[in-house]
Amino acid sequence: MKETTEIKCNVIDVQYQLCLAKDQQNMAPSTPVFDSISTEVSRFETVVKSSAAKLFPRIRSGSYADIGSRPSMDDEHVRIDDLSAHLGSYFKCPSSFYAVFDGHGGPDAAAYVKRNAVRLFFEDVHLPQTSDVDDAFLRALLNSHREAFLKADSALADKSIVSSSCGTTALTALVLGRHLVVANAGDCRAVLCREGVAVDVSQDHKLSYLPERRRVEELGGRVEGEYLNDHLSVTRALGDWDLKLPVGSTSPLTAEPEVQQFMLTEADEFLIIGCDGIWDVMSSQHAVSLVRRGLRRHNDPELGARELVMEASRLHSADNLTAVVVCFTSPNPVESCEPQSRRLRFFCLSEEARSKLKSLLGSN
After folding, report:
1. C-alpha closest to that of 31 among 284, 261, 335, 313
2. φ/ψ (deg, to 5) at 207
């Protein structure tokens, strides 16, 4: 039974093997994701060495959301494990798409971007028609994500869609073969578990982040403590047109995302995407360790996401809570301790000890 389970964990479909082979031919160093991620790319010597080769199984994901202590639920999220079911043969490699939208000033902005996510990010963009995921394709893909954020932002300028005081942060993650593209505007966060170590693959856009604070101040934004223009705790968001300059102007509050791309390796176990309600009360490493322990017990990303949200609630998060867990590998189960047979041990007592024992027993 154990051997069968190991084989199942290492089997991937033919389409995915072909994709890995294509990546092997066209692989190039990925764009660095901050200083914490090495620029060196780990290469497979062969696509499939044996049934015991540690290859990525079919992606699995789970999500969980809770209103928390807020009077309304303004979070939305997208979870698509099989993007081809929505786009047909748009991508030649297996692809998945995930997103978290954390609304403020009401739920309407987040709900609009969620409803139109597939159209904004894939149907309305122009990507090269090629079967190769090469450098040119990836550059076009990163640019298309930037355009999608800005198009969504422009749409939210229409007061017939949402109020001008309504907005949302947004974080998306596209898995294309072994390529991961993360785009972020706001304080949602994406974190990789790399052999148990948390690796942030997005940057929180807050005034506490010095490059963002400088950018805002250089563009004339008013900074009061940790708030932009006495109102927002984030420096990037979609919508919020009562705080932005007219369409076409460069505004301190911007919807332009930071987009990063890199290559997944065998060391990357899973990805967590969460709204700021999670990160307000726990570190990236705390979240990764919690989810990793859970997955080793039950191997259920849905339950892992729920446990993460419940932990944030236990730590008294004051916000809506949303988490998505995307598994790239099957975890090694926690080894259970086999019950050992009882062993009888015999002790030799000295003559003096035997005498004392007899004396004690006699007195009782």
Report:
1. 261
2. -70, -15
Residue that has been written with the tokens 């290492």 in this structure: 10
pLDDT at 94: 86
Task: Give domain limits for the chain.
Answer: 2-40+55-327
| Nearest alpha-carbon partner for 207 in 246, 150, 253, 173 | 253
Q: What is the mean pLDDT of the chain?
A: 82
What is the Cα–Cα distance from 103 to 8, expressed in whole angstroms? Answer: 40
pTM of the shown model: 0.78
CA angle, 25 as apex, 21 and 26 as ends, to 5°?
Answer: 115
Tell me which amino acid residue 120 is: L
CA 222 to chain centre: 31
Per-residue pLDDT for 237 more than 80?
Answer: yes
Q: Which CATH class is domain 2-40+55-327?
A: alpha beta
Of 65, 109, 121, the C-alpha closest to 278 is: 65
The Cα–Cα gap between 275 and 198 comes to 16
